[in-house]
Amino acid sequence: MNKDYRFEVYTDYCTGERQYIVKYIDFETVIGGGDTIEEAIEEAEGNLEFYLEYCEEHNIEVPEPSNHDYELYSGKVTLRMSKSLHQKVNDRARREGVSINSLLNEAIAEYIERKSITCMLAENDGFTYKGELLTHEKLERIRKKMKEKK
């Protein structure tokens, strides 16, 4: 079963150190984790393969991948930045042992996740958001409250 299931990458600091979490959109419980984005993706892919085999062996219906208009996107973006920012990005990526591409992907994913949660808070009467920067600890508390509310 080789299907194109979409996943999201998150940064997790719950252990005190940065870990990467990959979660499949179509499978709430199929995740992977690792010290690098690549490790997390590899673990998630292995877990998805195991899960799909399990479903096949036990005649459990597996959803089709969510409909996405992938053909509209190449996955490539040209990004221009100042030379000084480029140097800072390069230095940070080198210190963390990742590529610039991986570092920027992580930063963008984390930014979008924060913005998404901010929007959910603004729309949800049960929570207030006072315009302050969300920390990882606050995000975890918010996620927990939102799960409890469902």
If you had to describe this structure to a student in words, what would you say it looks like?
- With 150 residues, the chain is mostly helical.
- It has two domains: 1-65, Double Stranded RNA Binding Domain, CATH 3.30.160; 79-150, no CATH class.
- It is 49% helix and 11% strand.
- It has four helices and three strands.
- The chain has a three-stranded antiparallel β-sheet with strand order 1-2-3.
- A hairpin with a 6-residue loop joins strand 1 (7-12) and strand 2 (19-24).
- The longest helix is centred in the C-terminal third of the chain and has 24 residues, at 100-123.
- The radius of gyration is 18 Å and the shape is globular.
SSE string, helix = H, strand = E?
A: EEEHHHH
As a percent range, the share of strand residues is: 5-15%
Mean pLDDT: 78
Helix content: 40-55%
Question: Which structural class do the helices and strands define?
Answer: mainly alpha
Q: Would you count the extended β strands for me?
A: 3
Number of helices: 4
Largest sheet: 3 strands, antiparallel
Distance between the termini: 32 Å
**Strand order across the largest sheet:** 1-2-3
Rg (CA only): 18 Å
Low-confidence stretches: 123-132
Backbone shape? globular
Q: What's the number of structural domains?
A: 2
